[in-house]
Amino acid sequence: MLIGVPKEIKTLEHRVGLVPSSVKEFVRHGHEVLIETGAGAGINFTDAHYQEAGAKIAASASDIFAKADMIVKVKEPQPQECAMLREGQIIFTYLHLAADKPQAEALMKSGAVCIAYETVTDADGRSLPLLQPMSEIAGRLSIQVGGYHLMKHQGGTGRLIGGVPGVKPAEVLILGGGVAGFHAAQMATGLGANVTILERNNDRMRFLDDYFHGRANIIYSNADTLERAAQHSDLIVGAVLIPGASAPRLITKDMLKTMIPGTVFVDIAIDQGGCAETSHATTHDDPTYVVDKVVHYCVANMPGAVPLTSALALNHSVLPYALALASRGWKQALAEVPGFAAGLNVYNGGITHEAVAEALDLPFIAMPQ
Fold this sequence. Notes:
Elements: E1 2-5, H1 20-28, E2 32-36, H2 47-53, E3 56-58, H3 61-67, E4 70-72, H4 79-82, E5 90-93, H5 101-110, E6 113-116, H6 132-149, E7 171-175, H7 179-190, E8 194-199, H8 202-212, E9 216-220, H9 223-230, E10 235-238, H10 253-256, E11 264-267, E12 288-291, E13 294-297, H11 307-328, H12 330-336, E14 344-347, E15 350-351, H13 354-360
Parallel strand pairs: 1-2, 1-4, 2-3, 4-5, 5-6, 7-8, 7-10, 8-9, 10-11, 11-13
Antiparallel strand pairs: 6-14, 12-13, 14-15
């Protein structure tokens, strides 16, 4: 199979679908890889590095889309990329369709086979192996960027996350104790913050309580506990996730008025629409905006801020699945690899993931047998 890797064109996105070591694995398995020139330049992988790994270099993205049997990317295809997809072509990348109906409709129109990293599951049907590495990174980054924007000249409360002797540390509230929330809590407790995690799954609460062992408060999440906790928080991290579906809007407009002026809200869930009524996607070159004196950080590709780490971590997880697609064909791979079928979001002009179809109010079609 001919695998194509275009350069990412989302604002300040420097990750790349395949790093040279992954290219070498495809070539070793008898496949061809076509890389757009400069695709890895943002993380110091040159065209020469890719050629040494066995790839061929394409002059433009249009060459990639015209020739490749499968496109491997990082971020969702932009409108000009959707227009270049063709019927039967595979695209394997993050899609996050629940918050992006125009993209979904463009993919449906293309006739391409669209497989989303974020909805692939493990055999148990619960964990998300291709979303997990980026959730880990986004969770850790949320505390870094949150701490930075807590500084007064950035509009924050002016409180140091870890405090100093005699002065209390920041109050950090984390909405959701899944992968992203867990890693945010690790970073925040490590810096000495007072951390509260709101979670609703009893088994997960027991795990978090056992892990943090008093270093974080694990509280059952409901409207009352959220409203009360938000009023006293310096930094709030939104880390809720419903696989494939839109994120629940937990923070209302009215709640903002009760928060401390300068509270920072980092919305990791923004790829799925965000978990506040006031959330809308931002970019790394203009990451924040203020509503009712609350600083909103809603960058839709947070791991893109650390593209070397995130590209390598993503490749480690994606490679076995991408190789299965290339070696077995998409129908066989999705049928044989446990949990892989959940990744199919668009096929033959229809939505094949129920949560995505429901979020977009579009008809659901069953995956072909």
